[in-house]
Specification:
With 399 residues, the protein is α+β, with helices and mostly antiparallel strands. It is built from eleven helices and eight strands. It has two domains: 178 residues, no CATH class; 120 residues, Histidine kinase-like ATPase, C-terminal domain (Heat Shock Protein 90, 2-Layer Sandwich). α3 packs antiparallel against α4, α7 runs antiparallel to α8 and α8 runs antiparallel to α9.
Length: 399
Protein backbone atom coordinates (compact mmCIF):
# COMPACT_ATOMS: atom_id res chain seq x y z
CA UNK A 1 0.00 0.00 0.00
CA UNK A 2 2.76 2.39 0.99
CA UNK A 3 4.73 1.54 -2.17
CA UNK A 4 1.69 2.26 -4.34
CA UNK A 5 1.19 5.65 -2.67
CA UNK A 6 4.87 6.51 -3.11
CA UNK A 7 4.69 5.44 -6.75
CA UNK A 8 1.72 7.75 -7.30
CA UNK A 9 3.49 10.64 -5.61
CA UNK A 10 6.75 10.18 -7.51
CA UNK A 11 5.15 9.70 -10.94
CA UNK A 12 4.17 13.17 -12.10
CA UNK A 13 2.33 11.74 -15.11
CA UNK A 14 -0.07 9.88 -12.78
CA UNK A 15 -0.24 12.63 -10.13
CA UNK A 16 -3.07 14.53 -11.76
CA UNK A 17 -6.84 14.65 -11.96
CA UNK A 18 -8.70 12.73 -9.24
CA UNK A 19 -5.44 11.42 -7.80
CA UNK A 20 -4.17 14.94 -7.21
CA UNK A 21 -7.50 16.04 -5.73
CA UNK A 22 -7.41 13.05 -3.37
CA UNK A 23 -3.93 13.95 -2.12
CA UNK A 24 -4.98 17.55 -1.53
CA UNK A 25 -7.98 16.23 0.38
CA UNK A 26 -5.64 14.18 2.57
CA UNK A 27 -3.60 17.33 3.12
CA UNK A 28 -6.65 19.25 4.37
CA UNK A 29 -7.63 16.37 6.67
CA UNK A 30 -4.06 16.24 8.00
CA UNK A 31 -4.15 19.97 8.76
CA UNK A 32 -7.40 19.57 10.70
CA UNK A 33 -5.88 16.70 12.70
CA UNK A 34 -2.80 18.83 13.40
CA UNK A 35 -4.87 21.75 14.70
CA UNK A 36 -7.13 19.52 16.80
CA UNK A 37 -4.08 17.90 18.39
CA UNK A 38 -2.77 21.37 19.26
CA UNK A 39 -6.05 22.34 21.00
CA UNK A 40 -6.60 19.05 22.86
CA UNK A 41 -4.49 20.02 25.92
CA UNK A 42 -6.26 23.38 26.18
CA UNK A 43 -9.73 21.83 25.79
CA UNK A 44 -9.27 18.77 28.00
CA UNK A 45 -6.82 20.01 30.61
CA UNK A 46 -7.41 23.75 31.07
CA UNK A 47 -5.90 25.74 33.95
CA UNK A 48 -9.45 26.61 35.01
CA UNK A 49 -12.62 24.64 34.17
CA UNK A 50 -14.12 25.53 30.77
CA UNK A 51 -17.86 25.06 30.79
CA UNK A 52 -18.45 25.87 27.08
CA UNK A 53 -20.47 24.04 24.40
CA UNK A 54 -18.90 21.94 21.66
CA UNK A 55 -19.72 24.64 19.07
CA UNK A 56 -17.23 26.93 20.77
CA UNK A 57 -14.44 24.37 20.31
CA UNK A 58 -15.07 24.24 16.56
CA UNK A 59 -14.48 27.98 16.03
CA UNK A 60 -10.71 28.22 16.69
CA UNK A 61 -10.08 24.88 14.95
CA UNK A 62 -11.75 26.15 11.76
CA UNK A 63 -9.93 29.48 12.03
CA UNK A 64 -6.48 28.00 12.47
CA UNK A 65 -7.03 25.27 9.85
CA UNK A 66 -8.15 27.86 7.30
CA UNK A 67 -5.11 30.03 8.01
CA UNK A 68 -2.68 27.07 7.79
CA UNK A 69 -4.15 25.85 4.49
CA UNK A 70 -4.06 29.37 3.01
CA UNK A 71 -0.44 29.76 4.12
CA UNK A 72 0.55 26.44 2.62
CA UNK A 73 -0.75 27.22 -0.86
CA UNK A 74 0.56 30.80 -0.83
CA UNK A 75 4.07 29.77 0.25
CA UNK A 76 4.21 26.83 -2.16
CA UNK A 77 3.21 29.12 -5.03
CA UNK A 78 5.78 31.78 -4.10
CA UNK A 79 8.66 29.33 -3.65
CA UNK A 80 7.78 27.31 -6.75
CA UNK A 81 7.56 30.30 -9.11
CA UNK A 82 9.77 32.99 -7.57
CA UNK A 83 12.42 31.25 -5.41
CA UNK A 84 15.13 32.51 -7.78
CA UNK A 85 13.59 35.95 -8.27
CA UNK A 86 14.19 37.82 -4.99
CA UNK A 87 12.84 41.09 -6.38
CA UNK A 88 9.45 39.37 -6.72
CA UNK A 89 9.76 36.94 -3.80
CA UNK A 90 10.31 39.60 -1.09
CA UNK A 91 7.22 41.70 -2.03
CA UNK A 92 5.32 38.41 -2.40
CA UNK A 93 6.19 37.45 1.19
CA UNK A 94 4.98 40.88 2.33
CA UNK A 95 1.66 40.29 0.54
CA UNK A 96 1.52 36.82 2.09
CA UNK A 97 1.91 38.30 5.59
CA UNK A 98 -0.78 40.92 4.87
CA UNK A 99 -3.24 38.26 3.65
CA UNK A 100 -2.49 36.03 6.65
CA UNK A 101 -2.98 38.89 9.10
CA UNK A 102 -6.26 39.93 7.47
CA UNK A 103 -7.57 36.38 7.49
CA UNK A 104 -6.54 35.79 11.11
CA UNK A 105 -7.81 39.18 12.31
CA UNK A 106 -11.35 38.85 10.92
CA UNK A 107 -11.66 35.13 11.61
CA UNK A 108 -10.79 35.82 15.28
CA UNK A 109 -13.63 38.30 15.32
CA UNK A 110 -15.99 35.66 13.89
CA UNK A 111 -14.80 33.07 16.44
CA UNK A 112 -15.74 35.36 19.31
CA UNK A 113 -19.00 36.78 17.92
CA UNK A 114 -20.49 33.67 16.31
CA UNK A 115 -18.85 30.78 18.16
CA UNK A 116 -18.82 32.40 21.60
CA UNK A 117 -15.14 31.86 22.49
CA UNK A 118 -14.02 34.74 24.76
CA UNK A 119 -10.32 34.22 24.04
CA UNK A 120 -7.93 31.50 22.92
CA UNK A 121 -4.86 30.19 24.72
CA UNK A 122 -2.55 32.67 22.91
CA UNK A 123 -4.68 35.70 23.77
CA UNK A 124 -4.95 36.76 20.13
CA UNK A 125 -8.75 37.26 20.19
CA UNK A 126 -8.48 39.72 23.05
CA UNK A 127 -5.51 41.43 21.40
CA UNK A 128 -7.35 41.97 18.10
CA UNK A 129 -10.55 43.05 19.86
CA UNK A 130 -8.80 45.96 21.57
CA UNK A 131 -7.21 47.29 18.37
CA UNK A 132 -8.50 48.42 15.01
CA UNK A 133 -7.32 46.72 11.81
CA UNK A 134 -4.60 49.27 11.04
CA UNK A 135 -3.47 49.49 14.66
CA UNK A 136 -3.23 45.73 15.00
CA UNK A 137 -1.36 45.42 11.68
CA UNK A 138 1.53 47.58 12.88
CA UNK A 139 1.41 46.65 16.56
CA UNK A 140 4.70 45.01 17.68
CA UNK A 141 3.00 42.10 19.48
CA UNK A 142 0.82 41.14 16.50
CA UNK A 143 3.67 39.25 14.85
CA UNK A 144 4.16 37.09 17.95
CA UNK A 145 0.45 36.21 17.96
CA UNK A 146 0.75 35.22 14.30
CA UNK A 147 3.80 33.09 15.03
CA UNK A 148 1.52 30.47 16.59
CA UNK A 149 -0.26 30.00 13.27
CA UNK A 150 2.83 30.49 11.07
CA UNK A 151 4.66 27.73 12.94
CA UNK A 152 1.87 25.23 12.24
CA UNK A 153 2.11 25.83 8.49
CA UNK A 154 5.63 24.40 8.48
CA UNK A 155 4.34 20.86 9.12
CA UNK A 156 2.52 20.48 5.76
CA UNK A 157 5.37 22.39 4.10
CA UNK A 158 7.86 19.90 5.54
CA UNK A 159 5.72 17.04 4.17
CA UNK A 160 5.71 18.73 0.75
CA UNK A 161 9.49 19.13 0.92
CA UNK A 162 9.96 15.42 1.70
CA UNK A 163 7.73 14.52 -1.25
CA UNK A 164 9.81 16.75 -3.56
CA UNK A 165 13.05 15.21 -2.26
CA UNK A 166 11.64 11.74 -2.89
CA UNK A 167 10.53 12.76 -6.41
CA UNK A 168 13.98 14.10 -7.24
CA UNK A 169 15.56 10.95 -5.90
CA UNK A 170 13.36 8.79 -8.14
CA UNK A 171 14.00 11.14 -11.08
CA UNK A 172 17.76 10.85 -10.57
CA UNK A 173 17.52 7.07 -10.41
CA UNK A 174 15.57 7.06 -13.68
CA UNK A 175 18.16 9.34 -15.27
CA UNK A 176 20.94 7.01 -14.14
CA UNK A 177 19.09 4.07 -15.70
CA UNK A 178 18.62 6.01 -18.94
CA UNK A 179 22.29 6.98 -18.94
CA UNK A 180 23.31 3.35 -18.46
CA UNK A 181 20.98 2.31 -21.28
CA UNK A 182 22.43 5.01 -23.54
CA UNK A 183 25.94 3.80 -22.75
CA UNK A 184 24.94 0.25 -23.73
CA UNK A 185 23.30 1.52 -26.91
CA UNK A 186 26.44 3.49 -27.71
CA UNK A 187 28.61 0.41 -27.23
CA UNK A 188 26.26 -1.53 -29.49
CA UNK A 189 26.48 1.22 -32.10
CA UNK A 190 30.26 0.91 -31.95
CA UNK A 191 30.16 -2.88 -32.29
CA UNK A 192 27.71 -2.93 -35.20
CA UNK A 193 29.79 -0.67 -37.52
CA UNK A 194 32.89 -2.63 -36.57
CA UNK A 195 31.11 -5.82 -37.67
CA UNK A 196 29.98 -4.10 -40.88
CA UNK A 197 33.51 -2.95 -41.66
CA UNK A 198 34.73 -6.50 -41.22
CA UNK A 199 32.08 -7.70 -43.68
CA UNK A 200 33.06 -4.99 -46.19
CA UNK A 201 36.72 -5.96 -45.86
CA UNK A 202 35.78 -9.58 -46.51
CA UNK A 203 33.80 -8.60 -49.62
CA UNK A 204 36.71 -6.47 -50.81
CA UNK A 205 39.09 -9.42 -50.44
CA UNK A 206 36.74 -11.72 -52.37
CA UNK A 207 36.18 -9.30 -55.27
CA UNK A 208 39.62 -7.69 -55.54
CA UNK A 209 40.93 -10.14 -58.14
CA UNK A 210 37.75 -11.25 -59.95
CA UNK A 211 35.95 -7.89 -60.07
CA UNK A 212 38.22 -4.90 -59.43
CA UNK A 213 35.37 -2.45 -60.14
CA UNK A 214 33.20 -3.94 -57.38
CA UNK A 215 36.20 -4.01 -55.02
CA UNK A 216 36.80 -0.34 -55.68
CA UNK A 217 33.17 0.45 -54.85
CA UNK A 218 33.41 -1.45 -51.57
CA UNK A 219 36.66 0.33 -50.70
CA UNK A 220 35.17 3.78 -51.33
CA UNK A 221 32.00 2.90 -49.47
CA UNK A 222 34.05 1.75 -46.48
CA UNK A 223 36.03 5.00 -46.49
CA UNK A 224 32.85 7.08 -46.62
CA UNK A 225 31.28 5.14 -43.75
CA UNK A 226 34.42 5.41 -41.66
CA UNK A 227 34.45 9.18 -42.17
CA UNK A 228 30.75 9.66 -41.37
CA UNK A 229 30.90 7.47 -38.24
CA UNK A 230 34.24 8.32 -36.67
CA UNK A 231 35.50 11.64 -38.02
CA UNK A 232 32.40 13.86 -37.83
CA UNK A 233 31.68 13.80 -34.10
CA UNK A 234 32.84 17.40 -33.64
CA UNK A 235 30.99 20.55 -34.64
CA UNK A 236 33.49 21.16 -37.43
CA UNK A 237 35.77 19.02 -39.62
CA UNK A 238 38.76 19.90 -41.82
CA UNK A 239 37.63 21.07 -45.22
CA UNK A 240 40.00 18.75 -47.09
CA UNK A 241 38.36 15.71 -45.41
CA UNK A 242 34.88 16.90 -46.35
CA UNK A 243 36.01 17.42 -49.95
CA UNK A 244 37.53 13.93 -50.01
CA UNK A 245 34.17 12.56 -48.83
CA UNK A 246 32.40 14.39 -51.67
CA UNK A 247 34.93 13.05 -54.19
CA UNK A 248 34.33 9.48 -52.97
CA UNK A 249 30.57 9.96 -53.26
CA UNK A 250 30.85 11.27 -56.82
CA UNK A 251 33.21 8.43 -57.71
CA UNK A 252 30.62 5.93 -56.50
CA UNK A 253 27.94 7.64 -58.58
CA UNK A 254 30.20 7.56 -61.64
CA UNK A 255 30.82 3.83 -61.19
CA UNK A 256 27.11 3.27 -60.73
CA UNK A 257 25.98 5.22 -63.80
CA UNK A 258 28.83 3.97 -66.02
CA UNK A 259 29.07 5.81 -69.35
CA UNK A 260 25.71 7.62 -69.32
CA UNK A 261 26.95 10.33 -66.92
CA UNK A 262 28.97 13.29 -68.08
CA UNK A 263 30.42 14.99 -64.98
CA UNK A 264 32.47 18.19 -64.94
CA UNK A 265 34.18 18.58 -61.56
CA UNK A 266 36.38 21.30 -60.18
CA UNK A 267 37.81 21.14 -56.68
CA UNK A 268 40.39 23.32 -54.92
CA UNK A 269 43.80 21.80 -55.59
CA UNK A 270 45.34 22.17 -52.13
CA UNK A 271 42.91 23.69 -49.62
CA UNK A 272 44.33 25.11 -46.42
CA UNK A 273 44.43 22.33 -43.82
CA UNK A 274 43.33 24.79 -41.15
CA UNK A 275 40.03 25.61 -42.88
CA UNK A 276 37.06 24.02 -41.09
CA UNK A 277 33.49 23.36 -42.19
CA UNK A 278 30.32 21.90 -40.70
CA UNK A 279 30.15 18.23 -41.78
CA UNK A 280 27.66 17.22 -44.50
CA UNK A 281 26.52 20.78 -45.21
CA UNK A 282 27.57 20.51 -48.88
CA UNK A 283 26.82 16.87 -49.67
CA UNK A 284 23.04 17.41 -49.57
CA UNK A 285 23.27 19.61 -52.69
CA UNK A 286 25.60 17.17 -54.45
CA UNK A 287 23.31 14.25 -53.68
CA UNK A 288 20.33 16.27 -54.89
CA UNK A 289 21.98 16.86 -58.27
CA UNK A 290 22.47 13.13 -58.83
CA UNK A 291 19.10 12.13 -57.42
CA UNK A 292 17.03 14.44 -59.64
CA UNK A 293 19.40 14.80 -62.57
CA UNK A 294 20.79 11.30 -63.10
CA UNK A 295 18.89 8.60 -61.22
CA UNK A 296 15.48 9.42 -62.71
CA UNK A 297 16.49 8.76 -66.28
CA UNK A 298 18.17 5.96 -68.23
CA UNK A 299 19.46 8.39 -70.87
CA UNK A 300 22.68 10.29 -70.85
CA UNK A 301 22.77 13.09 -68.34
CA UNK A 302 25.19 15.68 -67.06
CA UNK A 303 26.23 17.25 -63.76
CA UNK A 304 28.54 20.21 -63.31
CA UNK A 305 30.09 20.86 -59.91
CA UNK A 306 32.57 23.54 -58.91
CA UNK A 307 33.93 24.27 -55.44
CA UNK A 308 36.18 27.31 -55.19
CA UNK A 309 37.96 29.12 -52.39
CA UNK A 310 38.87 32.77 -51.97
CA UNK A 311 40.58 33.02 -48.62
CA UNK A 312 37.98 31.74 -46.12
CA UNK A 313 35.03 32.19 -48.51
CA UNK A 314 33.79 28.97 -50.09
CA UNK A 315 31.56 28.91 -53.15
CA UNK A 316 29.69 25.81 -54.30
CA UNK A 317 28.15 25.86 -57.78
CA UNK A 318 26.10 22.93 -59.07
CA UNK A 319 24.15 22.52 -62.28
CA UNK A 320 22.36 19.37 -63.29
CA UNK A 321 20.14 18.22 -66.10
CA UNK A 322 16.40 18.39 -65.51
CA UNK A 323 14.67 15.07 -66.21
CA UNK A 324 11.35 14.69 -67.99
CA UNK A 325 9.47 13.75 -64.80
CA UNK A 326 10.87 16.69 -62.80
CA UNK A 327 7.39 18.19 -62.41
CA UNK A 328 6.26 15.16 -60.39
CA UNK A 329 9.25 15.18 -58.07
CA UNK A 330 8.50 15.89 -54.42
CA UNK A 331 10.24 19.00 -53.09
CA UNK A 332 9.93 21.91 -50.69
CA UNK A 333 10.40 20.18 -47.33
CA UNK A 334 14.01 19.22 -48.00
CA UNK A 335 14.84 22.71 -49.25
CA UNK A 336 13.21 24.23 -46.19
CA UNK A 337 15.25 21.99 -43.88
CA UNK A 338 18.46 22.89 -45.71
CA UNK A 339 17.68 26.59 -45.37
CA UNK A 340 16.97 26.21 -41.65
CA UNK A 341 20.25 24.36 -41.11
CA UNK A 342 22.21 27.00 -43.01
CA UNK A 343 20.46 29.78 -41.09
CA UNK A 344 21.51 28.15 -37.83
CA UNK A 345 25.09 27.24 -38.79
CA UNK A 346 25.97 29.99 -41.27
CA UNK A 347 23.58 32.90 -40.65
CA UNK A 348 25.32 35.09 -43.26
CA UNK A 349 25.24 32.56 -46.08
CA UNK A 350 24.07 33.14 -49.64
CA UNK A 351 21.95 30.45 -51.28
CA UNK A 352 20.70 31.11 -54.81
CA UNK A 353 18.62 28.52 -56.70
CA UNK A 354 17.45 28.90 -60.30
CA UNK A 355 14.94 26.56 -61.96
CA UNK A 356 15.13 26.58 -65.75
CA UNK A 357 13.22 24.57 -68.31
CA UNK A 358 15.91 21.91 -68.78
CA UNK A 359 18.28 22.41 -65.83
CA UNK A 360 18.66 23.28 -62.17
CA UNK A 361 21.34 25.68 -60.97
CA UNK A 362 22.38 26.52 -57.42
CA UNK A 363 25.07 28.68 -55.84
CA UNK A 364 25.99 28.56 -52.17
CA UNK A 365 28.46 30.91 -50.49
CA UNK A 366 29.62 30.51 -46.90
CA UNK A 367 32.54 31.80 -44.87
CA UNK A 368 34.57 29.06 -43.26
CA UNK A 369 36.28 28.94 -39.91
CA UNK A 370 40.07 29.01 -39.87
CA UNK A 371 41.78 27.34 -36.95
CA UNK A 372 45.28 28.74 -36.81
CA UNK A 373 46.41 26.81 -33.73
CA UNK A 374 45.25 23.34 -34.76
CA UNK A 375 43.33 21.60 -37.50
CA UNK A 376 41.45 19.49 -34.99
CA UNK A 377 37.86 20.35 -35.84
CA UNK A 378 36.33 18.47 -32.98
CA UNK A 379 37.53 21.03 -30.48
CA UNK A 380 36.92 24.18 -32.46
CA UNK A 381 33.83 26.39 -32.31
CA UNK A 382 32.08 27.83 -35.37
CA UNK A 383 32.47 31.44 -36.35
CA UNK A 384 30.69 32.83 -39.39
CA UNK A 385 30.88 36.26 -40.94
CA UNK A 386 27.92 37.39 -43.05
CA UNK A 387 27.76 37.45 -46.84
CA UNK A 388 24.80 39.34 -48.28
CA UNK A 389 22.34 37.00 -50.00
CA UNK A 390 20.94 37.74 -53.45
CA UNK A 391 18.89 34.64 -54.35
CA UNK A 392 17.57 33.96 -57.81
CA UNK A 393 13.90 33.42 -58.49
CA UNK A 394 12.59 29.89 -58.24
CA UNK A 395 13.71 26.84 -56.30
CA UNK A 396 14.56 23.21 -56.80
CA UNK A 397 13.55 20.02 -55.07
CA UNK A 398 16.08 19.01 -52.42
CA UNK A 399 15.73 15.75 -50.51
Amino acid sequence: MVQRILALISDETRYRGLTRIAFHGLLVIGVFILIISAYIPWFLYPASPLNIPIKTYVGPILRDSLCVIAQYYMLVYLVKHYARKPLILVPGLAVYYLILFTLYYYSSYIVKRHFGLPDDYSGSIGHFERLSYSEALFHPTTFFHLLFIIERAFYPLAARLLIEIYRRHIRNLNLEKQYTRLELDFLKSQINPHFLFNVLNSIYSLTEEDNPRAARIVEQLSAMMRYSLYETNGALVPLHKELAFIRDYIALEQLRTAKRLQAELRFPEQPDEHLLIVPFVLIIFVENAFKHGVHNTARKSWVKLEISLEGEALTLKISNQKTSNAASQVGGIGLLNVRKRLDALYPGHELAIRDEADAYHMVLKIRLTKNIESNDAATTGSHVEPITATPYAGQTSIP
